[in-house]
Amino acid sequence: MRETLNPEQRVLVLGIDGGSWDILRPLAEQGVMPHLRRILEQGVVGDLCTTMPPITAAAWTSFATGVNPGEHGLVDFVPFPGGGDDVAVASSRDVRARTIWAIAGEQGRTVGVMGVPMTYPPQQVNGFLISGFMTPPGSKNFAYPPELPQELESAVGPLVLYAGEGVAPRDIRRFTRRLLIDVDARVHAAAYLLEKYEPDLSIFVFQCLDGIQHRFYHILDVKGPHHAPRQNDDDRDDLLAVYGAVDEGIGRLRAAVGEDAVVFLMSDHGFGPLLGFIHLNNWLREQGYLVVRQDPLTVLRCALFRLGFTPEMAHQLSQSLGLDLRYKVNRGQSFKFLRRLFLSFDNVDWSRTRAYALGHIGQVFINLRGRQPQGVVTPGSEYEALRDELIVELLGLKHPTSGERLIARVYRREELYSGAQVGNLPDLLLEPRGFRYVAFGESEFASNQVVGPSFGHSGHHRMNGIFAAVGAGVRTGKQLEGARIVDIAPTVLYALGCAIPMGLDGRVLTAVFQPERTRAYAPQYAESPAMDQTESLEGYSEEDEAAVRQRLRDLGYIA
Predict the structure, then answer these.
(1) Is residue 321 pLDDT above 70, yes or no?
(2) Do 313 and 407 fall into the same domain?
(3) By the 8 A CB rule, do 52 and 26 touch?
């Protein structure tokens, strides 16, 4: 009779936020990333299809839970904006599904989690957890157990939560030098924890490459549309040093868990060149779906908006003056200041607005009666007719100069998602052609154009992330096909010897493992207990939320 439980062994998941084979594979082959090269030679490698849209919040949460956004509830950095202008910042409190570290802990496995986005505020685990991206700068409540930061400071020095925090990337050499110091410090802290506590499941995320690629993809991508070799070569060497530091971290953390561990390497999404931004609210306003008020202040703001008084203008002005105001303003007041200064959702007439946009890549919400406080569109046939109309019109959106169609497909949310949270997700989601032009962040009216330049960005997300596995019981030299980000959770649980909750959207990637292992140890499934949302957790304070918005702004996600 065949056994049903896997042998218990340590598992290490290494995440590279924004990792893309287009950049990483050449660097491995050229010797910049020798530890990565060994993984490519020794293990299983393939693409990893991410969520649609390919956004950090949706993707990392799908990785952590093994379910789609319709089940866990997050598509973007903001949860559902109930009143149009009532926009909050998402946190771990908004995740409506259980994570792999919670599941493993319930089955007696010890866990160590560090740097995974959307884990603030930290929840109690059977081990330790240090929250990642979206942790408010300066927060004291970022770890479980709460005394862990003090232990780390005594053992290895102050913990760096986010590499490069607060340093303006305009000075690439200074920026990369800071990144090198911070990446080394974070890896040093992680290695200390892995070696001291020896968790059965360890997860560590390198966040910094995502920000580098957003800003400097034109420097890294030597075959890309914006690369200028003579101008970019020195800067490229500085940036590649950071990739080398990440690679050193990969090698160090692999060594910390030992040769008998299974190591998974993955990313939340891929990357590619960005040619420009689409400002959907401007298009919706032009087409009459979004209407602004006619009070004197709004009329004035609209007049200034037409003249170019926008967040885009402020960004360009600060750059031309050699300033990086995003890194100098008071973080707690900047968001409120921008909304007072520029045209925003505060100026929208919600009683006459039928649709509005909010979020990255392309997300459209219907102002639905009974759902939004000032909803005007009736559920049922009117709602569906409006979605049908918008789909047709959006598919016709063209670049004003080249005439190329910008949108490949418009999805109704139920075409992409399933689960209890579908009703809280955007009504329509846009898939741009090649993702070369994408909707710009959570800024309501960042520019007065419908299609404009990608100010501050030369790269953006793609659907194809990276996947690799290496270690005891893993195949050698295998190319993996068809892996999805929701498959990581059940595959990790299988490698740990844990029972897999029934109802996950992901499947165990059995092709990763040697045939004799999968023949001897079949995946085991069990009923999933109800989610326990820890009552003691608190969401963002007003000051924390302002600080997180500023971090998103620093990275170029919002204006």
Answers:
(1) no
(2) yes
(3) no
Q: Is 196 a member of any domain?
A: yes
CA separation for the pair 168, 182 (Å, rounded):
15
In whole angstroms, what is the distance from residue 374 CA to residue 144 CA?
Answer: 41
300 versus 443: the higher-pLDDT residue is: 300
Q: b vs e for 420-450, b when ≥16 Cβ sit within 10 Å of the residue's Cβ?
A: ebbebbbbbbbbbeebbbbbbbbbbbbbbbb
Q: What pLDDT does residue 528 have?
A: 75
Same domain, yes or no: 122 and 57: yes
Count of other CB atoms within 10 angstroms of residue 453: 14
Residue 404 near residue 398, CB atoms below 8 Å: yes
Cβ count within 10 A of residue 288? 11
Q: What is the 8-class DSSP label of residue 404?
A: -
Range of the domain at 334: 276-453
Q: Please write the tens of the pLDDT for every residue from 12-67.
A: 999 999 999 999 999 999 999 999 999 999 999 999 999 999 999 999 999 999 99
Same domain, 349 and 406: yes
Report whether 4 contacts 524 (CB < 8 A).
Answer: yes
Structure tokens at 64: 């952590």
- The CA-based angle 183-189-193, given to 5 degrees, is 140
- Per-residue pLDDT reduced to its tens digit, 397-441: 999 999 999 999 999 999 999 999 999 899 999 999 999 999 987
pLDDT at 323: 56
Average pLDDT rounded to a whole number, residues 332-344: 65
Confidence class for position 550, pLDDT limits 50, 70, 90: low
Number of domains comprising the chain: 2
Task: Give me the half-sphere count of Cα atoms (radius 13 Å) on the Cβ side of residue 163.
Answer: 28
Between 297-301, 309-313, 461-465, the lowest mean confidence (pLDDT) is in 309-313
Q: Is 175 exposed, middle or buried (0-12, 13-18, 19+ CB in 10 A)?
A: buried
SS3 of 368, please? strand
Of 155, 151, 209, 149, whose CA–CA distance to 182 is shortest?
Answer: 209
The Cα-based distances of 325 to 285, 317, 416, 445 in angstroms read 29, 10, 39, 19
> In the numeric block, which tokens belong to residue 447?
């520019």
Do the domain assignments include residue 531?
no
Mean pLDDT confidence for 530-549: 57
Distance (Å) of CA 343 to CA 195, 298, 418, 454: 52, 7, 35, 20
Helix (H, G, I), strand (E, B) or coil at 475: coil
CA angle, corner 274, sides to 271 and 277, nearest 5?
125
Per-residue pLDDT, averaged over 273-277, amounts to: 95
Residue 53, preceding bond cis, omega within 30 degrees? yes
CA–CA dist 213, 555 (Å, integer): 11
Taking residues 236-261, what's their average pLDDT? 96
